[in-house]
Automatic annotation (TrEMBL):
EC number of the protein: 2.4.1.187
HAMAP family: TagA_TarA
UniProt organism field: Brevibacillus porteri
Annotated NCBIfam families: wecG_tagA_cpsF
Designated name of the protein: N-acetylglucosaminyldiphosphoundecaprenol N-acetyl-beta-D-mannosaminyltransferase
């Protein structure tokens, strides 16, 4: 039997594939188990490695491998992660479940025009999912109590938060016990993609596992963030070699 968790640079990833992840998360929601999903790519792993408080959050979360670099790292270290579980695809699959079960959904984050466009697109695509709240990510610290109260009163099955990493996961962890959400998930730039403001890489780039390069070419300002990828690769290989010796 395949073990259900694989550890990459001290970050515990679920080893479930995409469909298995959806089924497992759905089961957890239906059983009333609170779940904080972290979609972790190499950049997130490196942040967790360098930020002890954030690593503590990740260690207690349900971490999925969002990034082909995680799959390669698992292969290099002989661990059973064989499939990416990307954030935007996971969001869409969970919305399909919300449509099927008439779950409540709360959307938080992104720019005002983006979040409202994303809400309209998701409402049209999944008419039986109940979008019980929607709020952009440009709020002041003194407004947080009101936002948390609003989410708590709505009691959504799904809470999607787009505040950027690691802030989105730190925010959810801070208010976890007050939010009354069955599942909380940081979705990064997913609302930008769903709204149509940002185009996802063409399918051929996705199949070639070059989505990261497409985004870099489209947004050259991301180059500093992309430096985490070679650092991640070197750190994984260094740990592999040191464990062998």
């Amino acid at each position: 039997m395949t073990k259900q968790v694989a550890t990459i640079l001290d970050v515990p990833f679920t080893t479930r594939g995409f469909r298995e992840t959806i089924d497992h998360i759905t089961e957890r929601i239906q059983n009333g188990q609170k779940t904080h999903v972290v979609t972790a790519n190499p950049e997130i792993v490196m942040v967790a490695r360098e930020n002890r408080a954030f690593r503590s959050i990740v260690e207690q979360a349900y971490v999925v491998p969002d990034g082909i670099g995680i799959v390669y790292a698992a292969k290099w270290t002989n661990q059973p992660i064989y499939e990416r579980v990307t954030g935007v695809e996971l969001l869409e699959a969970l919305m399909a479940k919300a449509d099927q079960h008439q779950w409540g959904v709360y959307l938080l984050g992104a720019k005002p025009d983006v979040i409202h466009l994303a809400k309209d697109k998701l409402s049209a695509r999944y008419p039986n999912a109940r979008i019980v709240g929607c709020r952009d990510g440009y709020f002041r610290p003194e407004e947080e109590t009101q936002i948390v109260q609003e989410i708590a009163e709505a009691k959504p099955q799904l809470l999607f938060v787009a505040l950027g990493a690691p802030r989105q996961d730190e925010w959810m962890a801070k208010y976890r016990d007050q939010l009354n959400a069955s599942l909380m998930m940081g979705v990064g730039g997913s609302f930008d993609v769903i709204s149509g403001k940002v185009k996802r890489a063409p399918e051929i780039w996705q199949k070639l596992h070059l989505e990261w390069f497409y985004r870099l070419a489209s947004e050259p300002s991301r180059w500093k963030r992309q430096l985490a990828i070679p650092r991640f690769v070197l750190t994984v290989l260094k740990e592999k070699w040191s464990s062998r010796s």
